[in-house]
Amino acid sequence: MPDDLADVYRTTFPALVRFLYRKVWDAARAEDLAQEAFSRALAHRPENPRSWLFVVAANMARDEARRTARERRHLTLLANEPRERGPSPEDALDDELRRQRVREALERLTPRDREVLLLWDAGLSYDEIASQTGLARTAVGTTLARARRRLIEAYGSASEDAHVARG
Amino acid sequence: MSHVDDGTLHAYLDGELSPVERGRLESHLADCAPCRERLAQERSLIESAERLLALAAPPATGRDLRGVPRRRLRFLVPGVWAASLAAAFLIGRTLFVSDRQFAPPRAPAEALAPVPSAAAPAVSAAPAAGKRAASPPRTVALAEGSHRVAATESVPPAPAPVPAAAPAPAPLATPGVVSNQAAQAKLRGDSPAFIPPTAVTVTTPPLLPPRADEQIGTSWPVITAAPARDALGAELVQIPGLPIRDIRQDPANSGTVLVEQELAAGTVVQLLQARAEASVGETLMRAPRTSPLVKNVGRLRVQIAGPLSVDSLFKLLEAAR
Prior knowledge:
The structure holds two protein chains of two kinds. Chain A is mainly α. Helix content of chain A is 84%, strand content 0%. Chain B is α+β, with helices and mostly antiparallel strands. Helix content of chain B is 26%, strand content 12%. Chain B has eight helices and seven strands. In chain B, strands 1, 2, 3, 4, 5, 6 and 7 form a seven-stranded antiparallel beta sheet that branches. In chain B, α1 packs across α3, α2 crosses α3 and α3 (33-55) packs parallel to α5 (126-133). Classes of the chains: A mainly alpha, B alpha+beta. At the A-B interface, α1, α2, α5, α6 and α8 of A face α1, α3 and α8 of B.
């Protein structure tokens, strides 16, 4: 039983942080939420802890987003500032700016496409994603294909915007 | 078979087709150059998407953790060791490194001979790993408020080592004597049995100021298992199934050993251990008064630490052997 616990932690915690981070965009907060989810899993002992953790995490992130919507808008504005000041060429963009651009691209996806993409990236299988999102298993691949394409397009067009803005 | 849709190609590249579906697709691909070309395109699309997502990985730097108060545990004098004059304290460190390596393996979709890019690396695993693996270690300060503790006065000095399994004579429950059933119950998620505070131990004022942000034990020399066993006079206590990262010895007190085990990539749990009957004068003691994170394991007194909730640490400590 404790080995299970450690296994679940080992395989899930970092992915859970990553998943949450792309929802709350605050690394420390994402870690806190992941720990909270993990603590709840310890208490609840769900049958499939990994899927369960992501369901709980998604809910927590949603609550979090509601609570901090205003604050986040502010942060987004701040985070946008470097770009408005004069974006550098693609290679010279620092990590933060790239992250911000990916974030914007992700936010242009539909909620469902984004969720499926993030769950996949967090290591969930098609089956797990299907049961979590209510999609048919066969629709997961299609959704992922669309989400990936749109992410790349959105990122590319953001880069173009930046290029145009630069002049 | 008609041409393949995107979803099927992605499921194939993600290793998520059933063997039957995969066989059907591969035999189609073998005969269909346009679909092979699309497969290659979708493969590069997936790689691009993963690269983009990797850019949006959480920034893994020490600065993010240092400011998080919940991980900064406060160490006070524990009231639990009336008779077992021993020590352990707890420290936690995390270093966030690659996590992708722990994701479930995904079947590479490379078995198909006619596909031009069949020699390309597996899609899912490669792109995300490198960047995060390079992240620097981060350290969490956990020693804020820690105090060095001097002798307790109400406890008779132990003249000689007492037998390992002997229960503490004091009338309080030590965490080491939790029954197996109780431990199981706790592992099922019941609330942890907090050790009742006790007045048995008379504590002296702290001899050291609180040492916030200090990386306790990280400067301790790394030793191997054999001398550590000798120092403790017992087998090392560890959590089964977790790789041991380091064994360290307190340079100021050779009877205190720190075992660091990796719980996840970048998450280190520390087990500080010393002989349960060690003289208090030789031992540092840092633990919250009501800490459930200290217990006797065999002849050793062990304290656990790590960047986890107390509840999680408690359960891990229950598993320690």
